[in-house]
Amino acid sequence: MPVIVVTRLRLRDPALLDEFFTDAVAAIEQAMKAEGNLGADALADADNAWWSVTAWQDRHQMQTYVDTEPHLGISARLDHFCDEATFVDWEQASPNLPDWQTSWRHLTADGKAAELTRPSAANQTRDFPPPVEPPPGSD
Amino acid sequence: MPTVTVEGPVTLQQAAAALHDKLGSRYEVTTHGSGAQQALKVKQSAASTATVHLDQDGNATTFHVHGGGLVISRMVNEFGIAKKVADAIAEAFGTRPAN
């Protein structure tokens, strides 16, 4: 059954954006080319938060991606970049990526927070606002 | 996604005029959608686009600026043209962009 993985990362300092952006693009590109990937997307939210969502054929292929460079090294830098870092995954019948509001609902209900040196209060409570998206069809 | 909050109500038409003025003729600014879904599209080239939509909240207007395109190109546009558009709005309405 397809596995969906959603991440929400908030930069602890806007000055880190250049550095973070390079890593974020590398991770998304890697996911899109990875074996077993069914789709990937990213959203720049308000308040320096970045979302990603990926769909995988199964957990094994997802884990192979997670444990492969550049993702492996990038995940080790989350503590440097973030004051909020939360992840959630679930299985679903459809291989299609969920919309961002569905991703937000799963993340705030069942997400797991990374252990960070400088976490915000919301990092543990997952009291995150819904992501701000552009109006449909505006692309 | 860059956001800019300014005091007072600002219409989409006022925002479009301000962007025309600040960005110049190399950028095309058009209005899309209607009602709450209404937005501005700012285009520098086929690959470099951004969308601006407004939230009115009491006596403040918040501009949300999203990069256009698909996945990677959208991420690049979040970093490039969206930031430029947010800076132009902030300059036009006398405030500071938040990232």
How would you briefly describe this protein structure?
The complex is a heterodimer of chains A (139) and B (99). Helices cover 35% and strands 27% of the residues of chain A.
Task: Walk me through the structure.
The complex is a heterodimer of chains A (139) and B (99). Chain A is 35% helix and 27% strand. In chain A, a hairpin with a 4-residue loop joins strand 2 and strand 3. Chain A has six helices and five strands. Chain A has a five-stranded antiparallel sheet with strand order 2-3-1-4-5, with helices on both faces. The longest helix of chain A is centred in the N-terminal third of the chain and has 17 residues. Chain B has a five-stranded antiparallel sheet. Chain B starts with a strand and ends in a 6-residue tail after the last helix. Chain B is globular. The interface between A and B is medium-sized, with 26 and 28 residues.
What's the structural blueprint in terms of helices and strands?
The complex is a heterodimer of chains A (139) and B (99).
Chain A: E1 3-11, H1 17-33, E2 37-44, E3 49-56, H2 59-66, H3 71-75, H4 78-81, E4 82-91, H5 100-110, E5 112-113, H6 122-125
Chain B: E1 3-7, H1 12-23, E2 28-32, E3 39-45, E4 48-57, E5 60-67, H2 71-79, H3 81-93
Antiparallel strand pairs in B: 1-5, 2-3, 3-4, 4-5
List descriptors.
heterodimer, A: 139 residues, alpha+beta, five-stranded antiparallel sheet, 6 helices, 5 strands, B: 99 residues, 3 helices, 34% helix
Please, what is the average pLDDT of chain A? 95
Strand count of chain A:
5
Share in β-strands of chain A = 25-35%
Q: Order of strands side by side in the largest beta sheet of chain A?
A: 2-3-1-4-5
Q: How many β-strands of chain B, per DSSP?
A: 5
The gyration radius over C-alpha positions of chain B equals 12 Å
Distance between the termini of chain A: 31 Å
Strands side by side in the biggest sheet of chain B: 1-5-4-3-2
Order of helices and strands of chain A: EHEEHHHEHEH
In quaternary terms, these chains amount to: heterodimer
Q: Mind summarizing the main beta sheet of chain A?
A: 5 strands, antiparallel
Q: What share of the residues of chain B does DSSP label as strand, in percent?
A: 35-45%
Put simply, the count of helices of chain B is 3
Low-confidence stretches of chain B: none
**Count of helical regions of chain A:** 6
Category by helix and strand content of chain B: alpha+beta
Q: Largest interface by residue count?
A: A-B, 26 and 28 residues
Query: Can you tell me the overall shape of chain B?
Result: globular
Distance between the termini of chain B: 6 Å
